[in-house]
Design the sequence.
């Protein structure tokens, strides 16, 4: 696999200002991906009305093996899950928005072991999965009925970094589309790199021959990343150091500049470090700290894009994995994997601060939360 520097990337057409906005809705279904090694049997569902702060448990929506990470199709009719097993799979489901049930459509090989992340591009034509154990990524065509075709493109990463117990080999951990849908960014924990692959329908969904590469601090272990909605900045959460690195992003060349790295942990903290999830809401950024069992909040400087840590909120559970900001922007839902619960927090629209609402959903080993609209 040949790689080039960001400075060598050719210009592309102008950036779309933002990813497509969701239509105005009052009700949503929250889908919960889980590990099925204990109490859970698959994907669970809740009906969610943020305007009334009302939720209804819908129960098991679709039985599936370790559906750890989920993605919703842009048309809101289909749901995709990686099956995080040694023999990795990616599953496609049709959504019944009234009953909150999932209809199995197809299951295809992820072409690797331990797939941990899935994304659908903004056109809805391609899906991408990251295989953590085997350090690879694969792309899949999405058919008109929502089913996935067999993998049309595959990349095996190669490389390692300084943490020999965690970084002796590549570990692809996230597949994230840029807001203009022109690049797929892949965080590889084992290589301490973020790779940017051009989206290319003529090449099976992805041009894999000449990716751009951003190098993170050795030993950091990049895990997940998030774009600011205007796409001027991208933020990379590193798992091993629980730090966030901000980059100024130039989409025409996929150029990453002016890095700033900041800890997501309190000063003086000496416990386990394990960053898990990252998300942006307005001028506020949030990450989850598994060792510290908290959500860290940051303020984003509108001009420089740099971060200032503003505080930590206990997640009222153990090992917060993924969290999600609901489509209304009013609530943050934190999935505590090892205490089998999801805790809901109200977001202060001015300060970005989090206040527990007192509502808790009991779900076995929750790992991921995504939303689809109820028509």
Sequence:
């Amino acid at each position: 696999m040949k790689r080039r520097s960001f400075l060598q990337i050719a210009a592309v057409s102008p950036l779309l200002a933002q990813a497509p906005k969701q239509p105005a809705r009052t009700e949503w279904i929250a889908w919960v991906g889980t590990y099925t090694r204990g109490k859970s049997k698959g994907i669970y569902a809740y009906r969610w009305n943020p305007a009334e702060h009302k939720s209804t448990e819908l129960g098991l929506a679709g039985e599936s093996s370790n559906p750890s990470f989920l993605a919703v199709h842009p048309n809101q009719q289909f749901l995709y899950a990686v099956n995080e097993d040694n023999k990795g799979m990616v599953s496609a489901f049709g959504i019944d928005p009234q009953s909150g049930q999932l209809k199995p459509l197809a299951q295809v090989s992820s072409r690797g072991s331990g797939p941990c992340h899935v994304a659908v591009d903004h056109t809805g034509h391609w899906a991408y999965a990251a295989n953590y154990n085997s350090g690879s990524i694969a792309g899949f065509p999405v058919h008109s009925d929502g089913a996935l075709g067999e993998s049309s493109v595959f990349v095996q990463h190669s490389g390692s970094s300084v943490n020999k117990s965690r970084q002796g080999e590549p570990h692809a951990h996230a597949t994230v589309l840029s807001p203009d849908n022109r690049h797929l960014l892949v965080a590889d924990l084992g290589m301490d790199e973020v790779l940017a692959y051009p989206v290319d329908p003529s090449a099976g969904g992805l041009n894999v021959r000449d990716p751009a590469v951003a190098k993170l601090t050795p030993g950091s272990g990049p895990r997940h990343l998030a774009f600011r909605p205007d796409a001027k900045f991208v933020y990379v959460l590193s798992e091993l150091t629980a730090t966030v690195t901000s980059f100024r992003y130039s989409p025409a060349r996929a150029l990453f500049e002016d890095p700033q790295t900041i800890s997501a942990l309190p000063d003086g903290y000496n416990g386990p470090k394990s960053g898990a999830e990252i998300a942006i809401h307005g001028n506020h950024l949030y990450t989850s700290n598994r060792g510290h069992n908290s959500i860290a909040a940051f303020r984003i400087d509108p001009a420089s894009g740099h971060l200032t840590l503003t505080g930590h909120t206990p997640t009222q559970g153990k090992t917060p994995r993924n969290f999600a900001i609901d489509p209304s922007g009013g609530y943050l839902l934190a999935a505590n994997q090892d205490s089998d619960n999801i805790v809901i927090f109200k977001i202060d629209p001015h300060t970005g601060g989090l206040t527990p609402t007192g509502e808790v959903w009991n779900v076995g080993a929750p790992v991921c939360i995504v939303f689809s609209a109820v028509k």
Remarks:
- The two ends are 44 Å apart (CA to CA).
